[in-house]
C-alpha cells in the first residue's frame, strides 16, 4: 500500500483541516465582497441594468491581489494534483516492474525444473 495505517488522519484532524480550509477561503475571498459595488445603468428600452463592478482604492493592489488569486486558485492546486498523480504513477510503474521481474524469475525457475526432469 501507499501509506501505512498509522499515517492516516484522525477524524478530529480532518475536521480541523476542513475548517482551516474554509476559514482561509473566506479570508482570501473577502476583498471581492468588500471592494465591489452595484451600479444601475439605464438601458435603451428604458429598463435598468444592475452591474456589480470593482471599486478599489489602489489599482496596483488590485492587480497584485488578482495575481495572488491565480497562484492560489490555479497553480497551487495544479502542483498538488501533479505531485499526487506522479506519486501514483511511480508506485504503479514500480509495482508492475517488480511483477514483471517476478514473473520472469518464476518462468526461468519453471524452465530449469523442466530441464532437470528431462535429464
TrEMBL record:
Annotated coiled-coil segments of the chain: none
Subcellular localization(s) per the UniProt record: Membrane
Mode of membrane association: Multi-pass membrane protein
Entry annotated with the keyword Transmembrane: yes
Gene Ontology CC: plasma membrane
Entry's transmembrane regions: 17-35, 67-90
Keywords from the UniProt entry: G-protein coupled receptor, Membrane, Receptor, Transducer, Transmembrane, Transmembrane helix
A GO molecular-function annotation: neuropeptide receptor activity
Domain G-protein coupled receptors family 1 profile: 1-119
Annotated PANTHER family: G-PROTEIN COUPLED RECEPTOR, G-PROTEIN COUPLED RECEPTOR 83
Protein's recorded name: G_PROTEIN_RECEP_F1_2 domain-containing protein
Amino acid at each position: 500500500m501507499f501509506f501505512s495505517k498509522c499515517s492516516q488522519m484522525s477524524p478530529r484532524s480532518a475536521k480541523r483541516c476542513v475548517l482551516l480550509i474554509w476559514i482561509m477561503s473566506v479570508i482570501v475571498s473577502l476583498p471581492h465582497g468588500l471592494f465591489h459595488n452595484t451600479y444601475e445603468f439605464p438601458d435603451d428600452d428604458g429598463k435598468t441594468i444592475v452591474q456589480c463592478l470593482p471599486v478599489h482604492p489602489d489599482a496596483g493592489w488590485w492587480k497584485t491581489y488578482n495575481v495572488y488569486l491565480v497562484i492560489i486558485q490555479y497553480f497551487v492546486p495544479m502542483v498538488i494534483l501533479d505531485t499526487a498523480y506522479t506519486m501514483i504513477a511511480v508506485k504503479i510503474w514500480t509495482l508492475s516492474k517488480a511483477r514483471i521481474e517476478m514473473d520472469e524469475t518464476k518462468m526461468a525457475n519453471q524452465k530449469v525444473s523442466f530441464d532437470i526432469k528431462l535429464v
